[in-house]
């Protein structure tokens, strides 16, 4: 399964594990893949603490960091993070804040201890993501940077590449992948519509080969619907240089997911997800529940654009994560995941998942090869 991309990164297998849990980053990298820490939601100080821990425990293995600098968002402009946040809050209707807070209260989700009702911008803009990127670039073992929404700004691409690291970005359309290539990125992550988090409309099996054909020799990582070795074999057979996985790691032993939240994910079927703008302001696949349905009703506020909706919902993100087992929290919890969650129904360690993926991949390739005529 190894290839030139593996050689550049110093990994054994082209299996990329996107996660917000530092323990998962370390465990996957030690098992031969590469863990990629999702930095959105962290302050620069929090990210420093997480990366300090990773550096201390990962040995000589590499890892990556994923940031979010959308190509388009409300309030774009050249201003400081503080100035931008002040401007954006002026654009948020009080009715949206009240509605979000009422949903949480009606379902018995405890308030945040200090009484605050927002986490701020959470890194959804260039002003707030830049300090996170700069922190990541101080870490020699951080070998790649990924941007989760759109082509990164040209100065950020140059900054990362000049540091000797690889930089890539996610996409859900062919034209986005072409834009990534034209901008000079080192790899593209093509995520089909069944994937978790921010995703497009086109399914993986249709999207992946189109993007491979469109970007030529630029490595494409396949995302959306990767939960076993058979799906890895399918992705690589369609031209992918590796796989970008996320939902797969939400329920592992090392994940920081609260037990109640983990159980919601383990119980879910592939039909239990929905693409909704209710949390971030952009279409994001997650478990559907009372929260997602409430924001779709005609008599309730229309979700705002990114990052305005995030200002409204950030309090709910942290409260439903921390108080996952309180009241009817899971009915309003933010549980982003892909349709592949339906085939994840037991808790495994990261090493067990990696071993299973490799064994299933070998079996799938052997089965496909056995269909060829002899001689």
TrEMBL record:
The keyword Calcium does not apply. InterPro entries: Aldolase_TIM, NMO. Keywords: Flavoprotein, FMN, Monooxygenase, Oxidoreductase. Gene3D superfamilies: Aldolase class I (3.20.20.70). The keyword Oxidoreductase applies. It holds the Pfam family NMO. GO terms for molecular function: nitronate monooxygenase activity. This is Nitronate monooxygenase. It comes from Parahaliea mediterranea.
């Amino acid at each position: 399964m190894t290839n030139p991309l593996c050689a550049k990164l110093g990994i054994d297998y082209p299996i990329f594990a996107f996660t917000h849990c530092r323990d998962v980053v370390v465990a996957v990298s030690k098992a031969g893949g590469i863990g990629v820490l999702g930095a959105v939601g962290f302050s620069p100080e929090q990210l420093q603490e997480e990366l300090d821990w990773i550096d201390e425990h990962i040995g000589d293995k590499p890892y990556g960091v994923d940031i979010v600098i959308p190509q388009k968002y409300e309030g774009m402009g050249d201003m400081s993070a503080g100035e931008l946040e002040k401007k954006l809050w002026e654009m948020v209707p009080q009715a949206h804040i009240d509605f979000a807070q009422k949903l949480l209260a009606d379902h018995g989700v405890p308030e945040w201890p200090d009484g605050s009702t927002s986490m701020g911008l959470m890194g959804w803009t260039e002003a707030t993501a830049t300090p996170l990127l700069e922190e990541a670039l101080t870490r020699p073992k951080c070998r790649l940077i990924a941007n989760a929404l759109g082509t990164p700004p040209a100065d950020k691409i140059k900054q990362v590449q000049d540091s000797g690291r690889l930089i890539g970005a996610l996409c859900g359309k062919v034209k986005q992948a072409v834009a990534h290539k034209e901008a000079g990125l080192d790899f593209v992550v093509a995520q089909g519509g069944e994937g978790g988090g921010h995703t497009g409309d086109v399914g993986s099996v249709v999207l992946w080969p189109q993007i491979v054909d469109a970007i030529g020799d630029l490595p494409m990582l396949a995302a959306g619907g990767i939960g076993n070795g058979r799906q890895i074999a399918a992705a690589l057979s369609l031209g992918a240089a590796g796989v970008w996985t996320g939902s797969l790691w939400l329920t592992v032993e090392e994940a920081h997911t609260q037990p109640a939240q983990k159980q919601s994910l383990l119980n879910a079927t592939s039909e239990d997800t929905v693409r909704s703008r209710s949390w971030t302001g952009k279409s994001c696949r997650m478990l559907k529940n009372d929260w997602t349905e409430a924001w779709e009703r005609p008599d309730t506020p229309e979700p705002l654009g990114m990052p305005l909706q995030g200002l409204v919902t950030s309090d709910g993100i942290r409260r439903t994560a921390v108080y996952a087992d309180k009241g009817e929290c899971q009915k309003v919890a933010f549980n982003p995941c892909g349709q592949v969650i339906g085939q994840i129904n037991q808790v495994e360690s990261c090493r067990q998942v990696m071993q299973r993926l490799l064994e299933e991949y070998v079996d799938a390739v052997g089965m496909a090869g056995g269909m060829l005529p002899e001689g």
